[in-house]
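User: Continuing from earlier, I have the next pair ready.

Assistant: Great, send them over.

User: Here they are, in order.

Assistant: Folding the first of the pair now:
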Amino acid sequence: MKKIYCYEPWFFIFFGIFHLHRIWGLVDRESYAAFWINVMKSKGIFYFVLMGILAVLCALGIITFFRNLRYNYWWRWIYIFGGSYVLFDLFAIATGLEFWYNLLLAMFDVTAPYWNLLWGGFITMGGAVFVLGVLLLIKRK
């Protein structure tokens, strides 16, 4: 039987808010890029708390997908693809994979002509998963 677990709407709401914060990057490229590059380089308490939350949520989503193989909703595929990407991203940042670090620096290049398209894509994705989370919250109740 299909069931929406209590944490599932909050998974999408959290990731939606996390991606929607990137609106800041469209408003003020320099401070946005400087903030996240500093967080990535300094690896302070904020970094570890945020990375821990993201990792736990992704692992929980992937586990949920596999525990419900016969009864999955379509949106649980997001756990597999999105969660796997985020876990790889966290791993690559934590271990200092050079090619990934260079990719991130290119993403935070405030002079790049693709800046608005890149961060606008993340914002659009964030808005979509936030709405999905709200709809799941309504459906669950």
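And the other member of the pair:
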Amino acid sequence: MKNKITILALIFLLFVLSACRPKPSTSNENLIAIAVGKTLAAQPGPTIQPTYTPYPTLTSHAPTLEGLFCEYQFCIGHPVEIALFDAREAENPSLYSEGSLVAYSPDTFTLLVWQLNHGSDDPQFMLDLVMKDGLGSRLGNLDVNLVGDLTFFYVPTSTASAVLPVGGAAAWICGDRAFGWMAYAPNKEIAYSLFEEAASKFRCNQ
């Protein structure tokens, strides 16, 4: 029994002595290594960049004709990919009585102008107005289209742009206003489809 107590006492003494042993000092190199490791661990990971999704241009196919512009008490169709906006200066914006809108992209250009009609039954003067300042000239025969209760005059036009080699212009009267429209496109099918979309969705307060 006495031997057993002695052994337990020795074990306890060894435990106490080992606990009181001085701990090895950490060198400056170790401290620096620890600090660097903590700094690197705290750095944010690389941000995953969003991938670019290429969208087809209008040169190879007709534009998606589902857009609708409604302002100045009329509505008109346009390609959904591009938007119509006021082409006039901010200090002289478009009004109900007169104005102009444009829409463009690398593959299309559209211009719409309007003014009070003053009683004329023939809107062809708007063709000259929309093509002024060298924006094209008439080519081919004038095409008359009855769309709903409105009569639209359409004619192919020349263009000064090699990128958009085909153009078309249209004119019509709705209520007390006359409208002129023009578009440039890569080919005549797209130019005419732009006109059809504009005319088929056109409405005004008469």
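Worth noting for the second one:
Confidence is low (pLDDT under 50) at residues 2-20, 22-61. Residues 98 and 166 are 27 Å apart (CA to CA).
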